[in-house]
Design goal:
alpha+beta, 3 domains, five-stranded mixed beta sheet, 40% helix, disordered N terminus
């Protein structure tokens, strides 16, 4: 009995002493739907011990202290099971949740100890699932993580890279003409598209889209402005990246190239980020070679920022504005009255519909009179019930159905979509 008590006490004391050795010197480097990449630093008598302790410290900090930049720095665990954690660290079970290798960043002797910094990726979705199976309660900041990860996985955005033409940013015909006459532009688009693919994005080749698109029929069917709108809407991507390659040749012997990249969320034209990158000057005059040197200088931060900004749109929804107005010949009904085909006040019915269809319920009646309403709503990118993407075209359709139901047979709503603004005229 005394031996059992002694063993339990020793085990418990070992856990406490072991936990005190953990470091909280942990930095979030990157995160995506598959996990988080961190660097962690710790000190020990030997190099291998320091590297092991650093890796374990990343998990301990994630569990109990929180990593800055991840879930607002909140810890993951709301409760703790000492036996589970002892096995997790002492039996090296934490290694099951590391993707790839633990990379050594640096190691140097400080006083009498080895101080090591390592970098590695934690498979966060797998870790969360296993912790949940072990009845580990998560803190409030982490309770919806699984749902958020599901959305992020579904929304690894598709990138389409298009050329920039000053003053003709959405001019499809001008883009096509430029690509047809410029090998440099065509190859530059291919190179930038390939770079996004290397960074893990899904991509679609704009040049191939042009070749496969039946432009002749489209050109015969409508005005030039309508063509631009239809083609841009028909592009398959979630994000349009506009690329401009500016090449400068000096004395015919030296050259440099500056690449300017701008990313927008396709359906609303919302800006997701932009930056310029220079090749520096070389004794080279080949434009594409200079452009590829500039592309090598595109920083990881640009891709991380783009991913984070799009993830924020996924989580918060697309913000759109709805502008309701009465036609000039409508004088027997207004927005302060009951819906023509219902018993509820039109404004009350509208606000309830907005609340039901908004991402996280975010909606507002910004301005409203008897003749005019300006409302805003965060439109979700994902239809959870249908388990598929939810576009602004589908939102337009759902809004039209709501208005048709409210207005009945005697009134009609005409909806015009203008990027992030919908104009609705009742007549």
């Amino acid at each position: 009995m005394h031996k059992q008590i002694s063993l339990i006490f020793s085990l418990f004391l070992g856990i406490i002493l072991y936990a005190q050795d953990f470091s909280n010197d942990v930095v979030l480097v990157d995160q995506d739907s598959q996990g988080i990449t961190v660097t962690a630093t710790a000190s020990a008598e030997k190099k291998d011990q320091a590297k092991t302790l650093a890796a374990q410290s990343a998990f301990y900090t994630l569990f109990h202290e929180g990593i800055p930049g991840l879930k607002s720095g909140k810890p993951l665990m709301a409760n703790s099971k000492e036996g589970m954690e002892y096995r997790f660290f002492n039996e090296s079970k934490y290694l099951n949740y590391i993707t790839g290798k633990i990379e050594e960043v640096s190691c140097k002797k400080v006083n009498s100890l080895q101080r090591a910094t390592v970098r590695f990726t934690i498979s966060l979705p797998r870790l969360l699932r296993d912790l949940e199976r072990n009845n580990i309660a998560f803190t409030g900041a982490w309770q919806d993580q699984d749902k958020e990860d599901d959305v992020k996985v579904a929304y690894n955005p598709t990138i389409v890279v298009v050329p920039y033409i000053k003053g003709k940013e959405n001019d499809f015909a001008a883009m096509k003409a430029l690509i047809d006459r410029s090998d440099f532009t065509r190859q530059l688009l291919n190179s930038v598209t390939a770079e996004f693919a290397k960074q893990g994005y899904k991509t679609r080749d704009f040049v191939s889209i042009l070749q496969n698109y039946n432009t002749s029929q489209l050109l015969m069917s409508s005005t030039q402005t309508d063509i631009d709108t239809k083609v841009v809407q028909a592009l398959p991507g979630d994000i349009l990246v506009t690329v401009d390659g500016s090449v400068n040749i000096v004395n015919g012997t030296k050259g440099s190239c500056t690449l300017s990249l701008t990313a927008i969320e396709k359906q609303t034209n919302g800006n997701l980020g932009g930056a310029s990158f220079s090749s520096g000057q070389y004794t080279v005059t080949d434009s594409l070679a200079l452009a590829k040197n500039a592309l090598k200088n595109v920083k990881k931060d640009f891709f991380t920022s783009l991913s984070n900004n799009f993830s924020q749109v996924v989580q918060e929804g697309r913000e759109v504005y709805l502008e309701f107005a009465l036609s000039s010949n409508l004088d027997d009904w207004d927005f302060d009255q009951k819906s023509p085909s219902g018993s509820d006040q039109f404004k009350s019915a509208l606000q309830q519909w907005l609340r039901s269809n908004a991402q996280r319920g975010v909606q507002r009646l910004e301005t409203h009179t008897s003749k005019y309403i300006l409302a805003s709503i965060n439109v979700p990118l994902w239809n959870a019930n249908a388990d598929q993407a939810y576009t602004l075209y589908e939102f337009n359709s759902d809004l039209q159905k709501f208005l048709d139901k409210q207005l009945g047979m005697d009134y009609k709503a005409t909806i015009t979509s203008l990027g992030q603004r919908f104009k609705i005229v009742i007549e």
